[in-house]
Amino acid sequence: MVEVEAEKAVASREAELRKEVEMMKASTRMEKLKGLYARQQAANAECYAKKREVKGLMALGQAQGAYPRFLLDTIGGNYAAMRDFLMIHNGMFQQVAQINDDAMCGLQPKISI
Question: Residue 30 CA to chain centroid, in angstroms?
Fold first, then answer.
C-alpha cells in the first residue's frame, strides 16, 4: 500500500514536472512568436514607407515631365527654342561665362601688340 501511494506520488510529481516543462516550452514559443511578430510589423512598416516614397517619386517625375511637354506644346514643338529658353531660364549662359572667366584668370595671358 505504501509502495502504491509512493508510486502515485512519484507519478503525480512527474505529471506536475511535465506540466511545468510544457508551460515553459509554451512560454518560450510565445516569446519567439512575439519577436517574429514584432519583426514582421517592422518589415511591413518599412515596406509601406518605401511604397509611399516610390509613389512620391513617381508623382514628382510625372510633374517634372509635364513641364517640358507643356513648354514644347506651347511653342509649337520647336525643340531648339525650348532648349534655348531652358538654358536662359536656368542660367546656363551665366555659368559658362563664369567658368570661362575663371579659366582665363588662371592663365594670366600676356598679350603684346
Answer: 31
Give the contacts of 71 (CB within 8 A, at least 6 positions apart). Answer: 82, 85, 86
49-100: per-residue pLDDT in tens?
999 999 999 999 888 888 888 888 988 989 899 898 889 988 998 999 898 8
Report the domain count for the chain. 2
- pTM, rounded to two decimals: 0.48
Contacts of 82 (CB under 8 A, 6+ apart): 68, 71, 72, 75
CA 52 to CA 46: how far, in whole Å? 10
Structural domain including 34 reads 2-74
